[in-house]
Write a structure and sequence with these properties.
Layout lengths: L20 H18 L11 H11 L3 H21 L6 H25 L5 H30 L5 H28 L7 H32 L19 H12 L1 H16 L20 H10 L10 E6 L3 H9 L4 E10 L2 E8 L6 H15 L7 E3 L1 H35 L3 H29 L6 H62 L7 H33 L38 H6 L1
Antiparallel strand pairs: 1-3, 1-4, 2-3
Helix pairs in contact: 1-2, 3-5, 3-15, 4-5, 4-7, 5-6, 5-7, 5-15, 6-7, 6-13, 6-15, 8-15, 8-16, 9-14, 9-16, 12-13, 13-14, 13-15, 14-15, 14-16, 15-16
Length: 604
Amino acid sequence: MSENKQVGLVPVTLQAAADDGDAVSAEVESLRGGISEAAPDGLTAQLTGGAAFSADLAGVFSGANFVLLTVTAGVVALLLLITYRSPWLWLVPLAVVATIEQAALKVVDLLAPVVGIDVDPSAVGITSVLVFGAATNYALLLIARYREELRIHESKYAAMGKALRRTREAIIASGGTVILALLVLLFTDTMSYRGLGFSAATGIVLAILSALFILPAALVLFGRKLFWPFVPKVGDPAREGKFWGRLGEATARAPKRIAGAAVVVLLAAGGLLFNVQIGLSENEQFTEKPQAVTAAETLAEGFPAGSSSPVIVLVNSDSADAAIEELSTLESVSGAEAASEHDGLTRIDVIDSYEPGTDEANTFIEELRTDLAATPEYGALVGGEAAERVDQLAANQHDLNLVVTSVIILVFLVLVVLLRSLVAPVLLVASVLLTFVASTGISWFLFVNVLGFPALDTLTLLYSFIFLVALGVDYNIFLTTRARENAMTMGTKQGMLSALRSTGGVITSAGILLAAVFAVLGVLPLVTLTQVGITVAIGVLLDTLVVRTVIVPALAFTLGEKFWWPSKPAGKSGTGGRHEAQPGSDPGPALESAPAGAHRANTQ
């Protein structure tokens, strides 16, 4: 009993193995029901501690996949309907994407045990969101190019063939970048990261296959009428791209000044990271408090904060008394007593005065390990829930360094191979890194001043980085591959302007859709996923509306043909043998890639 006689504590050892999550959750729920029924009137009986937190964390995802799938599908359906303004067209990509998302989860369920990887519920939820967002992005890119080609080719098969040839490189490159980034997680020390890497990479592979095979077949099956009421006909002028063309021309008139202003704004947003706090305690993990949290708060009213998760110290039994005496003299220790003895080792339960997961608790664990190591005859090992969190933080720091370095190198190499350039990849990688810093700064400001989160979770930085860099570079890939294609016939400046006209609408739609899909993670009452969803959503919007729209085109306008160095996509003349269009002209996305005479041949 506590000194104020308001709180009583009964330590319980569960029968379930600690690494058997389902068994732990079942036993926790059974025990909670039992103690609640047995409690007399006026007494509240609750369960907290490491096992209870694990069970409540698993409970967050009970039925979560259905909620995520429903909300995500609704968001995608609404945005596709707004994008295409057709009562039918949005149904095809949505049906294909929803089918492939379910197929991806089934494949993961089948393969994960075979390869020996444990995929936790949070990885499944993130995979669903990622597959929905990525597969829909690829669909938007393909459908936009297919609609362009339908204005050139009478045959829907010829139009789709041309659209696939022009977009598959960008789809494979962007998807491949995401896959490579996710596979880096397989080399981390944290098992949950490995599970996410395997699950999400598998999903992206299927998303690419759906965009290259299933969706094209479905679109061709329904033909032109699928676009009703805006059915594309041969010779129709392009309706898309006028706004983006004017924006590109405005940027081309003062590229250095506009790019500089945009960079300054992003750097200022990154400056909001000043005094950022990283690391949430156990009680701060949930946006809605489960019983494990409320019980821990009640417990803290009568007992030291560390009572819910005692620090476990194993020492040689011959030195147990001396170790207990030394531990009891520490200022931050409220109690230390031998709990059990086995095979020459004694377990000592140490109660400290710090809430598990706080900086103070982590520092106490590190200092305790150092102090005990100074007496070799103890042979001391420090464990327990609080100590595990310290080890997790160290593993997370190692994993973050590994992931950041590896992903940057991989993305750079993919861009080098795709663009046959060294200058453009350096600039594109720098732009997505700037986006990550800016979005994290804005998110931190919102978390503290709007949502009331005390800190960033350690997982937030790694997840946000890998998704923002891998997915953010997608839009630059969509834009620059089109610009490079155009530069072969009209030079870099006009090629970039034409690429902006052609891809501006579809990339903006894709970015808004992907941001909305990731924001859906906020429906789960878990701070980590809420933070990841908001950070990625903000980053995708910045990348779509600022980096891809202003900064990258401005850099291309400033550098000209040097943007593609050492390759020369436009040839020595810089125009590929054709005269560049005037800045005010708009050749239209449909005709820019048409061979000479194509229009006449297809309309006679």
